[in-house]
TrEMBL record:
Database matches in PANTHER family: QUINOLENE RESISTANCE PROTEIN NORA
Residue span(s) of domain Major facilitator superfamily (MFS) profile: 9-392
Origin superkingdom: Bacteria
Annotated TM spans: 12-34, 46-64, 76-94, 100-123, 135-156, 162-183, 203-221, 241-259, 271-295, 301-322, 343-363, 369-386
Organism field: Caecibacteroides pullorum
SUPFAM superfamilies referenced in this protein's UniProt entry, alphabetically: MFS general substrate transporter
Alphabetized Pfam families for the sequence: MFS_1
Keyword field contains Membrane: yes
Protein name: MFS transporter
CDD domains associated with the record: MFS_YfcJ_like
Gene Ontology molecular function: any one: transmembrane transporter activity
Keyword annotations: Membrane, Transmembrane, Transmembrane helix
Length: 398
């Protein structure tokens, strides 16, 4: 008989995770417009403001992994969640760009802590025999939020809803998520012997090759979640770009039906390789939309939303596999470190994607930014198959 995966605590942490990401991503695609209209920021400044959040998150990640491996995990998780939620209220009061940037940095620090905390707590409360499946559903919660959140934010913005109300909606979502997080029951964690401070207490050294391939993959993803609406406007796609995120969410949901179970059967590297092929194809097609629309605007609209579906399937397939890969390279006492290394790799790429996407668009066009991103996914695919997969099979602990 299978170990039980669905418990009240597991459901509460899924809800907490979804509402956290939904609140954050609801605001994310609206921020470029907000920064332009309210503060008069140019594209490069916009990229800088957006990326300082991610830079702050990745700076705290290694330390948060160490803290979660050393102290009680749930109190740290709840503290970070509370600070993260509170900052949305601060955005409502930020009257200058400098204050807004300061709040973004604090928001990034709390996000870095709360996401590592959530990922570590969910591993603690699920049976190890169903870890791939459990992480798959957990990842699905934030991936769906990362898809329908931007869609909702863009719909509200296009409908003429003010920025104050959009920020309030994000605050309300995270408050509800915090309430769910308080209801999660975690197993007792006995005090651990504190090892001497060393680099591998902050970064999972065995996970660095996988981290490099994940980083290259997340650069174009960061460009997509932040700039795809502006790209569509630039090439004059005549459709609501909010649906791009809807189709992306649908692709992620479909991929979860099979990817987590394949991971639990040990097919981790095969799952990632298959997802990489799909993502490489999708990003080259996204960059080509600027030429397709000159040929047939209706065909381009269909291709644009098909790309969203394929990206959702590709990334949705890879997320639980990558997460499990990092966890399998670490002893149980370093779960927090493994999770923080996984998320740090992802966040570094997202931050670079925001900066380079804005910069390339400033000196050229968004399609050139996506072409650059597509080339990086090819490098990631080759590096994963030639270096990361063999390294993982030699060093995995379970």
């Amino acid at each position: 008989m299978k170990d039980k995966l669905i418990t009240p605590s597991y459901c509460f942490i899924l809800a907490a995770n979804f509402l956290l990401y939904f609140g954050f991503w609801l605001m994310m695609p609206v921020l470029p417009f907000y920064l332009t209209e309210v503060f008069g920021a140019d594209k490069f400044t916009m990229g800088l403001v957006l990326s300082c959040y991610t830079i702050a998150a990745l700076c705290i990640r290694p330390f948060s992994g160490y803290l979660l491996d050393t102290f009680a995990r749930k109190p740290l998780y709840l503290l970070a969640y509370f600070i993260f939620t509170s900052i949305f209220g601060g955005y409502l009061l930020a009257g200058t760009l400098t204050l807004f940037i300061a709040l973004r940095i604090v928001h990034g620090v709390s996000f870095g802590m709360v996401t590592v905390g959530g990922n570590t707590v969910v591993i603690d409360i699920m049976p190890s025999s169903r870890r791939g499946e459990g992480l798959g559903y957990y990842g699905l919660a934030n991936n769906i939020a990362m898809s329908i959140g931007p869609m909702t934010g863009l719909f509200l913005h296009d409908a003429g809803i003010g920025y104050t109300w959009i920020f309030c909606a994000s605050l309300g979502s995270c408050l509800a998520g915090f309430c769910c997080a308080t209801l999660v029951k975690t197993p007792y964690k006995p005090p651990v012997k504190r090892d001497p401070i060393s680099l591998d207490r902050f970064i999972l050294l065995k996970g660095l090759p996988a981290g490099a391939s994940l980083l290259l993959l997340s650069i174009p993803y960061g460009m997509t979640t932040n700039y795809v609406a502006m790209y569509a406007r630039q090439i004059e796609i005549d459709a609501s770009t909010g649906f791009f995120f809807t189709f992306m969410a649908l692709g992620m949901a479909v991929s979860r039906l099979f990817s987590g179970r394949l991971v639990d059967r040990g097919k981790i590297t095969q799952v990632i390789s298959a997802g990489l092929v799909l993502v490489v194809f999708s990003f080259f097609l996204l960059a080509a939309c600027v030429y397709i629309i000159q040929w047939d605007s209706h065909a381009c609209t269909v291709v644009f939303f098909t790309i969203a579906l394929l990206l959702g399937i590709g990334f949705g397939t890879m997320f639980p596999a990558y997460n499990t890969l990092f966890v399998n390279l670490a002893p149980n006492s370093q779960r927090g470190t493994a999770t923080s290394t996984y998320l740090t790799s992802w966040d570094v790429g997202i931050g670079i994607g925001m900066l380079t996407g804005g910069y390339i668009a400033e000196i050229s066009t968004f399609d050139k930014a996506y072409l650059f991103g597509a080339c990086l996914t090819v490098v990631s695919m080759l590096y994963f198959n030639l270096k990361v997969a063999p390294h993982y099979h030699q060093n995995k602990l379970r």
